[in-house]
């Protein structure tokens, strides 16, 4: 996938679980999995090209457009959790998960 041009994508659909797995080549390969939307319809977006030093049109699958449209809430929650993180240090993995859930609950409250 790295050798393909920018904007190329590959899609695999699992009919049993109704999942669409899309791998899209932007600056790096990006893999997204969704039960909601797949790669179609493909739209054009503008991306900066270092070689020609201007913006070029690149194909963008619908799953990437939806992710970019709705990712703001997750990023905001991660930022707020990182500001007020519970100071737990442990070697046991389940204590770390408990601390993360505690941080999410405090943030949501």
From TrEMBL:
Can you tell which superkingdom this protein's organism belongs to? Eukaryota
- Cross-referenced InterPro entries: PGBD (IPR029526)
Stretches assigned to the PiggyBac transposable element-derived protein domain? 2-109
Name listed for the protein in its UniProt record? (apollo) hypothetical protein
Q: Source species, please?
A: Parnassius apollo (Apollo butterfly)
């Amino acid at each position: 996938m790295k050798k393909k041009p920018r904007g190329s994508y590959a899609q695999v659909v699992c009919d049993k679980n109704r999942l669409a797995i899309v791998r899209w080549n932007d600056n790096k390969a990006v893999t997204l999995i969704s039960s909601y939307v797949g790669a179609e319809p493909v739209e054009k977006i503008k991306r900066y090209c270092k070689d020609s030093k201007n913006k070029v049109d690149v194909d963008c699958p619908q799953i990437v457009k939806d992710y970019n449209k709705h990712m703001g809430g997750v990023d905001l929650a991660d930022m707020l959790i990182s500001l007020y993180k519970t100071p737990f240090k442990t070697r046991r993995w389940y204590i770390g998960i408990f601390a993360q859930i505690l941080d999410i609950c405090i943030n949501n409250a």
